[in-house]
Predict the 3D structure of the following.
Amino acid sequence: MRIAQLHVYQKNMAVKDGPCTMSGMTVWSVEKTIVRRVSDTWHERWGEVCPLGSLYAPVQASAIRAVMREIGEFLVGVPIGANTVRQAIDSLVNCGGYLHSAFDIATIRSQIRHPLYLDESATDLATAISAIFKGFVEGFGMKLSRLGGHRPFGAFRDVCAAHGLHYTCDDSRCGDIVAAPRVQTAAACEPRCLEGVWLATPRIDDSDLSDTPVTVESGHISLPKGAGLGITPDSDRLGPPVASFGC
């Protein structure tokens, strides 16, 4: 099975009860990039990434789409496997974890005397594991997109479990296409280590993408019931793609 088509969409989502103020910036809306991948057997899969502004994370939504425009045509025909698409992207561009997730260390002074959790400074899997083995941290606020998707997050989860470290299963302000696998990933984590799951859906307007949104009810999140992601995005609601590759 190979990639036959790639379609890239852009969607703005308003911040509910906005604005959100953080990292020296005021955010009224966030801009997400959605990737629809169609195989030569006509199976479709969806990916999404949504960096929170231009100051909070070291990547911009427009830059992700610019990279997709550069490499999209070269991904058509790539075999679909556990690592083949990731390897193909790496052979074309040094893009970091955010683009990977759309498809699939802090230096401490030794005098610190209180528990330390890393969040945005744990920029990738290698940084997080280095902090663990150096004994810097007692936990993480971790985002799937920052690590590059659920596969590296699985390795991170297992290392944290072996060391008895706590973490959260979060992401930036994406919609249901990221919320669904995030909830499913969290369900595969050990409860003794998992401190919580954060969804942006109560704070953003993304209600028009799917008829089965991922929601928070009384502080709990139910697993999506459908196949694959658990939700079925409606491409007609996204409007025309900003880029398409393949026939």
